[in-house]
Amino acid sequence: MSDIVQDGIIDGKALAARVQEKVSAAVAELKARHGFVPGLAVVLVGEDPASRVYVRNKGRRTTEAGMKSFEYQLPADTTEEQLLARIAELNASREVHGILVQLPLPKHIDAAKVIDAIDPDKDVDGFHVINAGRLAVGKPGLVPCTPLGCVLLAKQARADLSGLEAVIIGRSNIVGKPLAQLLLNENCTVIIAHSRTRDLPAVARRADVLVAAVGRPGLVKGDWVKEGAIVIDVGINRVEGDDGKARLVGDVAFAEARQRAAAITPVPGGVGPMTIAMLLVNTMRAACAQHDVMVPEVLAGI
Ligand code: NAD
To answer: Residue 205 maps to which CATH number?
Structure first.
């Protein structure tokens, strides 16, 4: 186990800080050797408060890592055509290497159309159909950030996941499905479970690596966890605490599951911080590919 795991808890905040340090070093190296700085554009349409917070955090972390951050806060009544025109501009910009459109988009805009308008080589969220295809057939491409973070977190508990049985609960395009591909690449035997899975507790109990990506607080009970399993909790659920205040919890009943797991990610402080860290890594990879240079060695293994 790496030193990121303390008392069985995989510290996503500490790992994210470590990844960000490496990205900063890589940015400095690119600037010195090749004379360019990676740039990330984040586009937000509308006033959704949670999205505004995410966008602000992404911008801050991007500049902290020494990259250029371009933020576009567009009004809620922006038309699809206007948004597509903005994306076309960003696709053409030589300073922008990564483009992220914050989801959800207002209802009058077709999100799939917008994502497909992003140049796949700048699609740092990895949601473009071309990148999903590249991942499926094992070609180099941009991979969604949250699943990338999940694999890196699991590897802190066990560097070699080969041969392990992995059960992923949730089959979304942004978490469950790409994570299944990544764990397959790690030579895990992968099961994707979902809302129609029969006897979910029994399926979960098979897992050496158990990932919950559902969005239901406390769905995974302690006795769903195999003794010694690695548990990765992707869920982010806002619930009311005993004191009446809102707090964040995951999909796993943490206190119970911790008794049986060899290592487990907390919520908050697990997968969440890693998602932005991997966004920075993706921006770095995209920038290097666009300039046709190698990704700096400091990022090897990430
Ligand atoms: P989604 O709603 O697109 O998918 C949820 C999946 O869970 C579906 O595939 C569905 O089949 C499955 N499911 C629903 N009810 C179930 C049940 N009772 N039993 C088993 N499976 C069930 O969600 P998503 O976008 O993949 O996100 C999942 C969770 O992860 C959410 O809480 C979301 O907020 C969180 N999330 C966190 C991050 C992060 O950075 N930490 C990133 C993305 C998503």
So the answer is: 3.40.50.720
Contacts of 276 (CB under 8 A, 6+ apart): 16, 57, 58, 61, 145
**Domain count across the chain:** 2
pLDDT at 241 over 90: no
Give the global pTM.
0.97
Measured over the CA atoms of residue 42, residue 48, residue 54 and residue 57, the dihedral's sign is positive
Q: 19, 125, 151, 214: which to mutate for ligand 1, most atoms within 8 A of CB? A: 214
252 with 153, same domain: the answer is yes
Q: Using 50, 70 and 90 to split pLDDT, how confident is the model at 11? A: very high
**CATH assignment at residue 48:** 3.40.50.10860
The single-letter DSSP state of residue 221 is -
- Condensed to tens digits (0 to 9), the pLDDT of residues 25-48 reads 999 999 999 999 999 999 999 999
Please say if the pLDDT value at position 99 is more than 90.
Answer: yes
Residue 125 catalytic? yes
